[in-house]
Amino acid sequence: MENKKLKELLEREPWVYEFLAEEYKEKKELAIAAVNAGEVFQFLPEELKADKEVLMAAIEYGDEVFDEMDEEMFRDMDIARTMVRVFPDDYERLPEDMQKDRQVALECVKVRGEVYEFFCRELQEDEEIMEEAIRHGLDLGEIAAPDWGKEHPDGREKLLQREELVRIAVEYHDGNQMCHASGKLWENQELVEFVLAKGFCQLKYLPEHLRSDKELIKRIVANIPAENYGDYIFQLHFIGEELRKDTEFLLELIAEKAEVFRFILRCKKDEVLTRYFPFEADVPFCKKAYQVNPKTLRYMNKQMKQAVKM
């Protein structure tokens, strides 16, 4: 069979390579055609397994050929960068000196940001690497975590004060990334608007001076998506004390989300939580809640339902 036709066959049916005569298996052109289309690297002659071009083609396809590689292959920069781009989770297979290479690390986090946690301190403190890691999956909370702070005592707070870094985290994740940022950034009104627009819902992470801002609280409650009510609506007791006493304001929140009413009722039944809302969830209050949002009826017992409808 002519090489051209055989190459076309291998591009369609790479498994055929295993059964080729040795004279054909030794042809580099045919080997590349096969490894570009399937996981057949293990059937290559040893000479071709050591060929850089063939090896990189196999890795590009997604064949995990690492057990066939010697240490010198791992030290080749082109091979290392290709390897971490296709298999970022295998970053730690590289020799230690290659793991410390900035370009290799950068290539890796551009695919899977979470691998950042395995980097040495110098690479973790590299701004470009950190930003790319956040763009590709790393949560800002990993940087805010106490363990990270122990390793980077001088850099943690400085990094969490960086508006640009927080913006990237919010843009590529969601508004809740802001809960890991320095409190000083909450003084930046433009940034706060950006964060709210991206769905910030974490009431418990609001700085103290913002917990009594009615308009801000209303916008945050309005941000809570239906699938996350359980996670965020039960943070309502973190709003300012005066707002928790203000039944008219709470009714405004109930008008927006019936689940606010549900949470208040739950608090009134709890010996500890009831102190957060120092008023009676009586018939007049429940009737007003029903008037501003009829969906609250589903959270009332039978007796209360009859009373509010009278």
What does this 3D model show about the protein?
The chain has 310 residues and is an all-alpha fold. It has a domain at 201-310. The protein has 23 helices and no strands. It has helices spanning 3-12, 22-25, 28-35, 46-49, 52-61, 71-75, 77-86, 96-99, 102-109, 121-124, 127-135, 140-144, 146-151, 156-160, 163-172, 189-197, 214-223, 229-232, 241-245, 247-256, 258-268, 283-292, 302-309. The longest helix has 11 residues, at 258-268. It is elongated. The mean pLDDT is 89.
Main pleated-sheet profile: none
Helix and strand sequence: HHHHHHHHHHHHHHHHHHHHHHH
Give unreliable regions as ranges: none
Q: Structural class of the secondary structure composition?
A: mainly alpha
Please give the radius of gyration in angstroms: 29 Å
Q: Please give the count of helices.
A: 23
Average pLDDT score: 89
- The global form is elongated
Extended strand count: 0
How far is the N terminus from the C terminus? 91 Å
Helix content: 40-55%
Beta-strand residue percentage: under 5%
Question: What's the short version?
Answer:
By secondary structure, the protein is mainly α.
List keywords for this structure.
310 residues; 23 helices; 0% strand; mainly alpha
Describe the protein's topology.
Layout: H1 3-12, H2 22-25, H3 28-35, H4 46-49, H5 52-61, H6 71-75, H7 77-86, H8 96-99, H9 102-109, H10 121-124, H11 127-135, H12 140-144, H13 146-151, H14 156-160, H15 163-172, H16 189-197, H17 214-223, H18 229-232, H19 241-245, H20 247-256, H21 258-268, H22 283-292, H23 302-309
Helix pairs in contact: 1-3, 3-5, 5-7, 7-9, 9-11, 11-15, 17-20, 20-21, 20-22, 22-23
